[in-house]
Amino acid sequence: MQxxxxxxxxxxxxxxxxxxxxxxxxRVVSFRVAHSTITDADELFTLFWGxxxxxxxxxxxxxxxxxxxxxxxxxxxxxxIFDPDSTTATYKVxxxxxxxxxxxxxxxxxxxxxxxxxxxxxxxxxx
Length: 127
Prior knowledge:
- It is a single chain.
- 0% of the residues lie in helices and 45% in strands.
- By secondary structure, the protein is mainly beta.
- It has one domain (2-119): Sandwich (Jelly Rolls), CATH 2.60.120.730.
- Strands 1-8-3-6-5-4-7-2 form an 8-stranded antiparallel sheet, with no helix packed on it.
- A hairpin with a 2-residue loop joins strand 4 (45-49) and strand 5 (52-57).
């Protein structure tokens, strides 16, 4: 099990996409974020595999700065395998997106618990 922690600079001008290379083949066990400014209920942070949402962090309205927001794993894509050797570029990265413009820019701290020993049955076309 690996704990992957990194920070991202956010702005108020536009929604943003961030791409972080996956360290090895594995699956996301949990996804959590904390933002350095107040967040609102419409300011979602989503972890994608390709175009599929794996986990979504949804703050409550006017959530205090620095509060950890736990992601909810998607029932369909929670066991998806990320793989740096995939032939599909978007399966080689953690794609993190805040889908709406944030009310205030700041620093987003991301915590991903990543299981590199996960064994999941998956069709070759999905890997």
